[in-house]
Amino acid sequence: MATNAEVSKNENESAINLIRRFSKRVQGAGVIPRVRSGRYHTRPKSKAVTRKSALKRISRREEVAELIKLGKMLEKPVRGKFRR
After folding, report:
1. Structure confidence by residue, pLDDT tens digits, 7-46
2. Is 80 left (phi over 0), alpha (psi -120 to 50) or beta?
């Protein structure tokens, strides 16, 4: 869905007027707002990817809990003002 804003130079037209006409054409076509709206858009993760990351997170937590019980790892201190 590409929108091309094409402008050709007239006989007695300066470069500045040509640029001004081009930018008006681009503005009228709505190219800039469309590009800016998609600037920070990221695809949502698929179900398989979210499940995989959740399983990885769970297994990592279990490993850490086991290491803490065995005394091979120190428990992290609680950070923050309201965490208890």
Report:
1. 888 889 899 999 999 999 888 888 888 888 888 888 999 9
2. left
Residue listed under structure tokens 């054409």:
25
Enumerate residues 6+ apart whose C-beta is below 8 A from 45. 53
Write down the residue that tokens 């208890």 correspond to: 84
Residue 22 tokens read as 């081009």
CA 66 to chain centre: 36
Amino acid at 5: A
Q: What is the DSSP letter of 71?
A: T
Would you say the pTM of this structure is higher than 0.70? no
Q: Are 71 and 43 in contact (CB under 8 A)?
A: no
